[in-house]
Amino acid sequence: MKKIIIATRRSDLALWQAYNIKAKIEAGYPEIEVELNLIVSNGDKVLDKPLALIGGKGHFTKELEDEMLAGNAHMAVHSLKDVPTFIPDGLELVAITERQDQSDVFLSHKYKNLEELPQGAVVGTTSLRRRMQLLKIRPDLQVKDLRGNVNTRLRKLSEGEYDGIILAYIGLHRLDLLKDIPFVEKLPLALMIPPMGQAALGIEIVCNDPKIREIAMTLNHEPTFIATKVERDFIAIIGAGCSAPVACNATISEETITLQTMIGYPNGTNIIAKTLSVDISEYATLGQKMADLMIADGVLDILRDAPNLAFKETRPDRI
Fold first, then answer.
1. 142 vs 284: CA distance, rounded Å
2. Topology, domain 104-186
3. Which residues pair with 4 in a beta bridge?
4. Residues of the chain with CATH 3.30.160.40
5. How many CA atoms, within 13 angstroms, populate the side-chain half-sphere of residue 222?
6. Structure confidence by residue, pLDDT tens digits, 162-203
7. What region, left, alpha or beta, does residue 197 occupy, with left being phi > 0 and alpha being psi -120 to 50 degrees?
8. How many CB atoms neighbour CB 31 within 10 A?
9. Class of the CATH-defined domain 246-310
10. Phi, psi at residue 7, to the nearest 5°?
């Protein structure tokens, strides 16, 4: 094999991620040329609607997968949190890179932290998960949708459209964008539980190519692969999309793996939260065990109703 083509979105963060993987492959396989196939995903095109109303974060991955299935790329680099649990026939999610800082971060040009926000302050976020957890602790706030790439979101904040916004820390850190924000508060994971796969990259490849698989597997970090598999198993079993109001985080400490989950309405009510720990040797069943507990407590009804409650004002009832 003389050349590998990597499919990637064109956003600044996606390109940072793709170039990072490109450099690692070239370091390990200097005889192979690595080329990027740059794609504008539907999720990057439709910016006037919340993600949950256009089908969720799968819109960030579909076009990349189509390119691989058409023979125009050998692999794709994704933010793992954007990757649906269903992978199309002919493709495989084989490697997960080492997870970095999973924190969400509060940003503002006016207020030092969440606690300083006055009653009725406007906070921007695209995520129903963040909306749920934020309104659970501050039901007095106004939470408004925030779309666009990272730079667009930061511009909207600086122009005063929001009193504060909440984004994933890792993307801002990778692009060195935090230095220009007056007030930055990294939110503890106990306060803002992350989503499935946050701060890890997923390497998706075409099936039946042993060399591509070999190369992809050099990028895999086994502890992160195990932890995110538990998260993805749980999400798949309860049938939650990437944009659903679901917080889900697996962590490993010595020989124990712990899964923490929270599901509720985006307005911060009807929340069900559970934590379950097992021996690391039993990780393959942890997602199922947690799903069984949450389903028994009624999370399927919450997941069914949550999107309608979140976007009632943007999607009027039919007459």
1. 40
2. D-Maltodextrin-Binding Protein; domain 2 (3.40.190)
3. 34
4. 246-310
5. 2
6. 999 999 999 999 999 999 999 999 999 999 999 999 999 999
7. left
8. 7
9. alpha beta
10. -85, 135
What are 122's strand-pairing partners?
142
Closest CA to 270 of 300, 237, 235: 300
* Closest C-alpha among 285, 83, 78, 62 to residue 195: 83
Asked if residue 31 lies in contact with residue 7, where contact means CB atoms within 8 angstroms, the answer is no
pTM attached to this predicted model: 0.89
**Tokens at 142, concatenated:** 């106004």
How do residues 84-105 score in pLDDT, each as one tens digit? 999 999 999 999 999 999 999 9
Cross-strand pairs, 186: 105
Catalytically active residues are 82
214/291 Cα distance (integer angstroms): 33
Instruction: Return the SS3 of 143.
Output: strand
CATH number assigned to the domain covering 3-97+199-220? 3.40.190.10
**Tokens, residue 203:** 């390497």
* Cβ atoms of 128 and 248 closer than 8 Å: no
Q: Give me the residue label for tokens 């919450």.
A: 302
Amino acid identity of residue 303, one-letter, is L
Q: How far apart are CA 314 and CA 125, in angstroms?
A: 15
